[in-house]
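S., here's the first fold you wanted:
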Amino acid sequence: MTFRQQFILTVLDKGLLALIVAVAGYSLTKSIEAFKGRQALENDLAKARDQKQLELLQSQLSQFYWPVYLRLQMDNVVWERLLQRCSNDHVRSQLGLRIEKDFILPNHEATSNIIEANIHLAAPESQLMDAILKYLRHVAVYRALRAGGNDGIDPIAVGELWPGDVFPAVREATLRKQRDFEALLKQRER
């Protein structure tokens, strides 16, 4: 083989090798760019998903869980005073009646309205839903008794017990949703 043929063969060999490296480099670059594009898209989708989840939790907490929880807590706080409406002491008796008329019954009404208007946001699990339905039934019987002029009769007298599980169930769900909300906020800060 002549020098010229050997030179041409070497140039072609090196050229072919350079071409293969260039094609491989180009393919690798395109693959890396595609990977980065997919990664960016996945990150954007994750951010959008987290934002929607954050918005949902915020709506659930602000329009359902916290308002219902606080109203039930207010009922708990004044409950003992309500019982005084049966007291022999005229002042305590009147105080208990006023608390029932001016606070408990309107508070039950407002709580029921919040529940009815926003139950779709709550998406409660079955145990919480059962407790909420018992609460609504109790309030309906309470209202019906008062509307019928039965001021001295409580729902318990007609077999409608206070749903003692409603407050703990709402408290638990509220605090769980609040923890989820705060965890998602912290996650977004990273």
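And the second, which I think is the more interesting of the pair:
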Amino acid sequence: MTTTHTRIAGLLESGKFLTDGGLETDLIFNKGINLPHFASFDLLSTDWGQQALRDYYESYLDVAARHRAGFILESPTWRANRDWGQKIGYSAAELSAVNRQAIEFLEQLRAQHRASAGLPVLISGCIGPRGDGYVADRQMTTEQARTYHGQQMAVFADTAVDLVSAFTMNYVEEAQGIVHAAQDSDLPVVISFTVETDGLLPTGQSLGDAIAEVDDASDGYTLYYMINCAHPTHFEQRLAGDSAWRKRVRGVRGNASKCSHAELDAAEALDAGNPEEFASDYLRLQELLPDLRVFGGCCGTDLRHVERIAQACLA
């Protein structure tokens, strides 16, 4: 393990961290910003887009400061890989440049927050799936995923990122490939799986089996695991018992809505759920996940949800 890996692990042992909510759904449905293919990284190409991102991140940093919590700044690069970039006209060189720009942008935000609040802020390079986050389509082998995501990983390795985080992973081979690519670039890595309403991955595999398979293939290199893009009630029933794998889950970024992925895909309006109830769901998750340290939101969540989570879980 790297020195950075050990340092971050130590920070997680000593305190809790907030992160943001559903960046893309917030910008699209609450702010009225058009994001083709959910590609929020494209906002970095204009001054007004950068200001929209700055306002978004600063509001969450303020919540963390009020609650005396650390914060994980997640880069707006969930769609900044080759296939999705091509859909909106980015070349390979332009994608490399915008991934680098995203981290530099977060560096500036971190510097301002450190000066005002003095709390730990980690910069995470965000990696998304090659295919649809809700459907395990276009599946790759582990080595194919290692090569594919290694392109974005290599760019992050040449920046000030503290770690990389792969979100909305829905099958094991892609997650394994990302972990191997992180090892190749000597970067700490977080893997975040998504699940269906039955608490299982879209492939039908259990969270525990998926985590064990990734860990076995990489000697436990993953810094920690997360669950994202599912409502807490979809997976809490899978967390009962004393299975050792639960201690590897240290972060949750849940959806505001209790709808299934298929229902969310078909929805024309945002379902923001109930922020107060959402925070109560996180309180229950704290009891089920003994090492939970990172709290944030995913689709449909915004500042209200994360504020309520902070009030409930960071006391």
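Why I say that: The two ends are 32 Å apart (CA to CA). The CA atoms of residues 125 and 156 lie 6 Å apart.

Talk tomorrow,
H.
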